[in-house]
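Researcher: Here's a chain I'd like modeled. Treat it as a single chain, no partners, no ligands.
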Amino acid sequence: MNRIAVLGSTGSVGASCLEVVDNHRDRMDLLGISGHSRWETLGLQSQRFHPRWAVVSDKFIRSRVTTEAFSEKTRLTFGGEELERIAREPEVDTIVSAIVGAAGLRSTWEAVKAGKRVAIANKETLVIAGSLIMTMAEQSAATLIPVDSEHSAVFQALQSGKKSEVRRIVLTASGGPFRGWKLAQMRDVTPEMALAHPTWNMGPKVTVDSATMMNKALEVIEARWLFGIDADRISVVVHPQSVLHSFVEFVDGSVIAQMSPPDMKLPIQYALTWPERAEGCSPRVDWSQPCTLELEPPDFEAFPALQLGFEAARRGGTCGSVLNAANEVAVERFLAGRLRFDLIPVLCRSLMDGHTFDPSPTLTDLLRLDAQVREEAFRWK
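Model: Modeled as a single isolated chain. Structure tokens:
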């Protein structure tokens, strides 16, 4: 039995993960779940799976939580420290890191330090501290398996050859709801428009990131560290159908891709069953129907966020931490109606260019910088 804890189980990726676990109860045992403030959803998950632990990470809502909403077999605790405790728990084999944003960094760090298998959906951990995380994984013998559909596709394709035989990694992007738009058109984008993604059903922050293509920028940084490949050997192509999830070009000219309908349960299941494959609960491609797959280069002028990702991947150091923190606040301000959509990458560029670059920061340095940049981003005009 693969004993699993899903940190961030109330989000879209976490909910899909629980569907996978439910489909494979003969080989997966759910020991822990967590949510930040959606305790009602967490309670329903507890009643359904009866895990040993459930964590509400927002300890300030403790007085509002009805403990009777949780299974009698589940121990309910509060606070971010409890996430780190579960991440270190010896009885847990696999940690699913599905907490959105920098909030997932500490628990993921503890899971890697403890030598766990980490199914990583929290790309921000590698964006902020990729070099440190990968060094820690090597020391602790932790296994990091990507859950993002693009990085899962690359991970699968890389098994067709040696790392020394890889010429290029190509990440695909749907293009979001504004594919084909020019930068001048972005000025009047509303939150409702940005949240109308054409192919994926995701949380609001990730959906806005897809609309600005910042999501792909962060994935470039993630790929740089996760696969140990220089930024100059990573490319992005726009693929609106979201069926071809990414591909790897080898030195002999062979291109190996992973394809499937856009559904997160497939890469989640692969991360939990690797190196084996199992019957899945995801939709299949209907090969009896006509199918057209489009590929086109991204428009860096219309989507300047993408260029920021490549720059941060090339420079490393503190750049990823600054870019991520600035973007998280910028998206929050946009969704609250306090920042124009087209100014999200402008804010990020300003803070990235203005910070004091450190090529070899410690985790403490990165967390301190994260807090500092967030304050500056809230004040930015």
